[in-house]
Design a protein that fits this description.
This protein is an alpha/beta fold. The protein folds into 2 domains: 263 residues, Aconitase, domain 3 (2-Layer Sandwich); 144 residues, Aconitase, domain 3 (2-Layer Sandwich). The strands form 5 sheets. A 5-stranded parallel sheet has the order 4-3-2-5-6, with helices on both faces. β12 and β13 form a beta hairpin. α2 crosses α6, α7 packs parallel to α9 and α12 packs across α14. The termini are far apart.
Length: 425
């Protein structure tokens, strides 16, 4: 019987070295563990279990651990500062080389830029958006702190092999339609329950022309559909990209022709228009024309979802020659130091600042709430981030709409939710 991508990856990591299929249970060898500020909290679990003093002797492979400080960068209160201080001490104590401090940016982006993830790997992280690395043909997923403590000690974790659903993306998108529009369209049509503890395979001729950056957005937000994994096949575009940034060897993983899928969904990319997720859920998603005219107070471009160079460059096309509406706060957060530097080199940052935007240091920023860009009661924000839950950006009496960077910046210029095609036609 044929296997899906996730079945093949989990089979290759199974400690018993045999093929496994959906519904079976495996103890799998982990290839990479990634943590942010919560490394300190995970270590406290080891302390509570009386293992902290032994950790030097029984700690798993430190070269397979990546840690970054990105959620509160720089720290916004004493508690966070103390937590980050502890993380730095742990990094030094355990000689963890793959550490990225507050100046580097969002760890999801950094992990990909530095090729810590490659096709066929099994990756776990103490962040739900660890699904992001599926864009690199890896099986990656978020786990809890206790699970991570176990991984750090053993290098293994117990999994139920998930069923796989396939999203076949066909056709070409209309002009000015992004993969953020596509994933919001999918969420609105199929709900956030469509992939609960499933693995998603994104494939089809509509994927072939999609940039790597756009695929990252899709994998990143697959967890918003409930997915355990959100994986792309390794096509020539991905392989060429990886070979241009690393000389490490890797083995792409492809599904078998007779692989069994729980369900298959056909999505015509050409049917997708600019989409917006209304408060307070991702699947409360509608065409932008249904919410056009709603007043906004804040607009955000950034995060692990849409803070890459491609996103900033797209948004700058609307801002060039335009100004942010008086009374609107446009916050721009590059995903990494590398993205920020390249955006500066290309003059993109100047376009933002000249238009009246506030450009922040690379970090998770307003996406995580409680750090910067906090909303007060009654305020409305349109954001290119990944979640619009109540209280996500501050007050639980505020409202957050999600959209593509193009829709966000068009709305910032007009001061109300706006179809970006008005500016781009």
């Amino acid at each position: 019987m044929g296997q899906t991508i996730v079945e093949k990856i989990l089979s290759s990591k199974f400690t018993e070295d045999k093929e496994v299929y959906a519904g079976e249970y495996v103890t799998a060898r982990v290839d990479l563990a990634r943590l942010h500020e919560n490394f300190a909290r995970v270590f406290k679990i080891l302390i509570e279990e009386g293992l902290s003093e032994k950790a030097e002797d029984i700690f798993w492979d430190v070269e397979k651990i990546v840690v970054g400080l990105d959620h509160y960068s720089p720290p916004n209160n004493e508690k966070v500062a103390e937590e980050q201080k502890l993380v730095r001490k742990l990094i030094e104590r355990f000689r963890i080389n793959n550490f990225y401090d507050i100046n580097e940016g969002v760890l999801h982006q950094i992990v990909l830029e530095n090729c810590h993830v490659l096709p066929g790997m099994l990756v776990v992280g103490t962040d739900s958006h660890t699904t992001t690395y599926g864009a690199y043909n890896a099986a990656s997923t978020g786990i809890g702190y206790t699970e991570m403590a176990y991984v750090l000690l053993t290098g293994e974790l117990f999994f139920r092999v998930p069923e796989t659903i396939k999203f076949e993306i066909t056709g070409k998108p209309q002009e000015f339609i992004t993969s953020k529009d596509l994933i919001l369209y999918i969420a609105g049509k199929y709900s956030t329950e469509v992939a609960q503890y499933k693995s998603i395979e994104f494939k089809g001729d509509g994927i072939k022309n999609m940039t790597i950056s756009s695929r990252i957005t899709m994998s990143n937000m697959s967890v918003e559909l409930g997915a355990k994994f959100g994986i792309f096949e390794a096509d020539d575009k991905l392989l060429n990209h990886l070979r241009s940034i690393t000389d490490r060897k890797f083995e792409p993983v492809y599904p078998d022709p007779d692989a069994e899928y729980e369900k298959e969904y056909l999505v015509e990319y050409g049917d997708v228009v600019p989409f917006v997720a209304k408060p307070h859920t991702i699947d409360n998603s509608v065409p932008v024309t249904e919410v056009s005219g709603i007043h906004i107070d804040q607009a955000v471009i950034g995060s692990c979802t849409n803070g890459r160079l491609e996103d900033l460059e797209l948004a700058s096309k609307i801002l060039k020659g335009n100004k942010v509406k008086k009374g609107v706060r446009l916050l721009v957060v590059p995903a990494s130091k590398r993205v920020y530097a390249e955006a500066m080199r290309r003059g993109i940052i100047n376009i933002f600042t000249n238009a009246g935007a506030t450009v922040l240091n690379p970090c998770c920023g307003p996406c995580f709430g409680g750090h910067v860009g906090v909303l007060s009661s009654g305020e409305v924000c349109i954001s290119a981030t990944n979640r619009n839950f109540k209280g996500r950006m501050g007050s639980d009496k505020a409202e957050v709409y999600l959209a593509s960077p193009l829709t966000v910046v068009a709305s910032a210029v007009k001061g109300e939710i706006t179809d970006p095609r008005e500016f781009l036609r």
